[in-house]
Amino acid sequence: MSLMKRISLIFRSKANKALDRAEDPRETLDYSYQRQLDLLSKVRRGVADVATSRKRVELQVAQLEQSAAKLQGQAEKSLQMNREDLAREALTRKSALAGQIADLRTQYAQLQGEEEKLTLAQQRLQAKVEAFRTRKETIKATYTAAEAQTRINEAMSGIGEEMGDVGLAIQRAEDKTAQMQARAGAIDELIASGALDDASAINSGDDITRELESMSSQADVEAELARLKGLSAPQQPDAIEAAPEPGEILDAEPEKQESVSDAGKDAQP
Q1: How remote is the C-alpha of 5 from its chain's centroid?
Q2: Were 207 and a residue from 114, 166, 194, 251 both cysteine, which residue would form a disulfide, CB within 3.0 to 4.6 Å?
Q3: What would the pLDDT profile of 121-151 be if each residue is shown by its tens digit?
């Protein structure tokens, strides 16, 4: 196969495929129905033209017959007036008119036959056009219903072009959302581990400083908590004296020993 033939074949196949996608059976049926109506209209005009020609021939025959009858009367009158020459002339003209009348009657019969044929063809064509119109409307309704059902099924299954685009958009949105959530979680983990600095914390220092501040803050919290517990503890009654400290007991024992020795001295005579 030559290069030009291959190019021509490819072009025809592409054009056929494009035309097949662009073709709408309903529009094709409407166009065919319109063409049949045009043909039926032409047949009707043909029938009317033949009928007009037949009527014209009929009128001509009638006029010639009137002329022939008039010439017949003139011939008879001429004979009554002993004018044989005028009678012969009138009969000669009548004979010529008789030939024309015969020809016109032949044409009239032919036109009448053509008119009958065209009228029958018109009736048959009109019946076919009406049957085609009924079938056309049925096919169009069936095609429209099938097209609507197909679109509904494609929309429900998500394989249609419009729903396919919507599904892809939703999928892309979900993918981006998951990606952003993963990125946010990773950044939070890095900030918590100290690998990244929190830009919102001003003069926060390095990780050691942050650790010391955290420990100091915890110590302050524990101290404040102990103070609050001491304030909330119940008070001891005043009658119960506090137990002496060990140091006070040691300080009081020498004083007691001194008082005992003084008392022994006073008891001696």
Answers
A1: 40
A2: 194
A3: 999 999 999 999 999 999 989 988 888 888 7
